[in-house]
Amino acid sequence: MNSTTLRRAAWPISFLLIALACWFAADAVADRMVQQELDTALRTQRQMSASVVDNMAEVIASDLAMSRAIPATMAELDVIQHALTQSQDYAANAGGTEPARRAQLLGQPSLAAVSAFLHDAQGYSGLDMVWVVNANGLCVASSNATTKRSFVGIDMRSRAYLTNALLGAFTEVYGVGRTSGEPGIFIAAPVYDDGLLVGAVVAKVGIARLRHWVARAGTFVTDGNGVVIMAHDASLEGHALPGSNVMSMSPEERHNIYRRDVFPDIRIRPAAQLHRDAPWVPDALAAQLFDTSVRRRPALYEARSGLNSGLGAHLVDPVVAWPELLRTHKRDRLLVFVTLAGASALACVIAMSYLRERRHHRATRHLAEQLQSANTLLSAEARHDALTGALSRRYFLDLLRHEIEDARLAGEPLCMAIADLDHFKQINDRFGHAAGDRALEHFVETCRTELRDGDAIGRLGGEEFGILLPATGLAAGFETVERLRQRLQAMPSASLPATVRLSVSIGITELGPDEPSERLMSRADHALYTAKSRGRDRCEAVHPGDTAPPARTASTTR
Predict the structure, then answer these.
(1) Inter-axis angle of helices 109-125 and 3-74, to 10 degrees?
(2) HEC states along 31-61?
(3) Which of the four, 52, 329, 361, 435, has the lowest number of CB atoms within 10 Å?
(4) Pairwise CA distance, residues 303 & 484, whole Å
């Protein structure tokens, strides 16, 4: 076989290898693309599902709290307590048939009045039934006392909800009524009379009244034993969660509570066949997906248990985007394969363009960093005085207006002081401007040592400085600037000649109601003028109510 034949035979093999490489690459790219879409879809849907379950749990807790309040309130009523005390002689094992006991109890005026009260209370409370049981477990009054299904005279000691109530505990359980055969929440509140347990008030809230709990598709409610007592999909009712308590109960206990013995497993489990249908789903996302015995589409599962009642709120929320994601994966894989197979040359161009864009991006980023550094430097220079490091006049005035607004919103005081170094011109004239600069720097350093972190000092011009004291009244502010004045005098600067005696005059005032910043500064300036005119090296305070200051002269400000 010559070389020409070998080359001709190699072409189909090369094309096949390129096609295979493109196919595997397309599969990997499609996997990655759809994984991102799935992750985004799950994050969004999980937030919505959690919100639905949280709202559902709040509604359940709120409804049950309202229902609990009614029997608990009735248990505190004197008429209920006295009626139960008077009925302690009635018991199911005292002889006589149930109809005879009923007739005897209905013949008691006090118990008949309680039954009438319970009937009226049921009408406006939203309860299905309310009845009163004495300490012997005998129903002595009920809201249905005059109906054919009257509870009066029935021995209720075997009811699960009554056992704990007659031991003094508040009880709230799910069950199926033995007389009506209708499910509901049974709430039993113990009744005491003069500290003695005399019976219980029992109320039933029918499940039919609570269907709004499962108004959204996929929601269901379980009781403390893990049995689904209510579901948007009614076919789930009577199922049980995997490993729930109902599985360990005896048949008699199950029948006593639920009037049934068989509880199919709802089988909420990780989506076992997910990797078979969609092998591209990563393990981290697959662990978040579930399926049930009635839904084969992967779903999110959210549950909230407790709710101060033993009930649990659940939501099995099928992934809405799942069918579309399967179609998207197939479509993306085909499109990427076609693109890769026919665009080898274009890939080189794209690579070159990518490298050029990277260089451009690095250059742009470097330029942006330089610009940001320059802006930071300019911002610092604009905010601070270059010599002393104090705030610039413009920034200090802006800060003053901001602090005035904050003080008014918070209802807090605000003090402003204006400080002026005494005889500063003489320091410049005798020792030179360098000494004057050191004096200004020393004053600002002294201010920073004495003032709080939230206080501010700004250079208003020359040797004149403004001081802001937020959340400070005039008396406290005056003490602060007086300490500052004394510290400046007591601690001379090592960088100044020993003969330089540095002192400062300070005027301070407090922000008045509805007062602009200009008037506040004017009054602080007036206080400074007073300090200068009274001999310098002192602090003066002007109250907000004082009149406007007179004009200053050059001799009093130096």
Answers:
(1) 140
(2) HHHHHHHHHHHHHHHHHHHHHHHHHHHHHHH
(3) 361
(4) 63
Residue 298 lies in a domain: yes
Residue 330 makes CB contacts below 8 A (sequence gap 6+) with: none
Q: Are residues 216 and 206 in the same domain?
A: no
164/290 same-domain check: no
Neighbours of 268 (CB within 10 A): 18
Distance CA 314, CA 69 (A): 25
pTM score, two decimals? 0.55
Output the domain CATH number for residue 547: 3.30.70.270
Nearest to 199 by CA among 77, 318, 323: 77
Which amino acid, residue 62? S
Q: What is the span of the domain harbouring residue 254? A: 211-318
49 φ, ψ (degrees, to nearest 5): -65, -45
Q: Alpha helix locations (H) across 384-392?
A: none
Residue (of 285, 271, 277) closest to 42 by Cα position: 285
Residues 159 and 228 grouped into a single domain: no
- Does a structural domain hold residue 189? yes
Residue 247 CB partners (closer than 8 Å, separation 6+)? 226, 240, 263
Give the C-alpha distances (Å, rounded to integers) separating 321 from 44, 76, 290, 332.
11, 54, 15, 16
Per-residue model confidence as pLDDT tens digits over 59-95: 888 888 888 888 999 999 999 999 899 898 888 776 6
**152 and 217 in one domain?**
no
Judgement on whether residues 258 and 281 belong to the same structural domain of the protein? yes
Closest CA to 133 of 152, 107, 106: 152
Same domain, 407 and 538: yes
Note whether 541 and 441 are same-domain residues. yes
Q: End-to-end CA distance of the chain, in Å? A: 111
Number of domains in the chain: 3
Per-residue tokens: 19: 């096609």
Q: Are the beta carbons of 210 and 155 closer than 8 angstroms?
A: no
* Residue 550 located in a structural domain: yes
| Cβ pair 467, 417 in contact under 8 A | yes
Instruction: Give the pLDDT confidence of 159-177 residue by residue, as tens digits.
Output: 878 888 888 888 888 888 8
Q: Is 395 exposed, middle or buried, given 0-12, 13-18 or 19+ CB atoms closer than 10 A? A: middle
Strand order in the sheet with 196-206: 139-142, 129-134, 196-206, 183-193, 171-176
Strand pairing category for 539-542 and 464-470: unpaired
Report whether pLDDT(306) > 60. yes
Residue 410 shares a structural domain with residue 449: yes
Kindly give, in sequence order, each residue whose CB lies less than 8 Å from that of residue 342, ignoring residues fewer than 6 positions away.
Answer: none
